[in-house]
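Write out structure tokens for Two component transcriptional regulator, LuxR family.
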Amino acid sequence: MTGPEEPLRVVVVDDHPVYRDGLALLLGSVPGVEVVGTAADGAAAVEVVREHLPDVVVMDVQMPVLDGIEATRRITTQAPSVGVVVLTMSEDDGTVFAAVRAGARGYLLKGADQEEVLRAISTVASGGAVFGAALARRITDFFAAAPRGPEEAFPQLTAREREVLDLVAAGRSNAQVAAALFLSPKTVRNVVSNVLAKLQVGDRAQAIVRAREAGLGR
């Protein structure tokens, strides 16, 4: 005889108390969903996740102390089983790609209705990914619009660095790059760090944008 299904355990992170508490109340009222914690900034979010190890974190992006992108990166590194759904006002392509590169498996705009948010949480909890039709289409358009001519781009990079950047720009994770090139994950991390330094960009998302503009990642 099997017992009842365990509820989906969710943490809500947003620096606006009205939105955070309202969303937590809304989600908590849904059968099969349990809100196990909330946080008002990214640093607090990392601690709450470490304490409760939820199934899904609903994460705002623009927050004090530590932004949602960096918080997502830390959470997905420390607790890979936790799915992150980024819920934000921003439709900026850079934010979308930064969230994806940080490990978010869902990206919704704050205008999303209750059903859409719940569907995203459920999908991410079961290992899927949700980026909303409009955002998914923009991601596809962004990749389709990249110009050709990668062989002339970034002469400061070594052949290996260009090879790694090409795979990163194609959306591969460090682990996937390592497997594709028969390198250790540590070596890939080091190469990516060198690429960021040589391109003089602050993060992986900016490197991807630069690479895509130059025709890499096709």
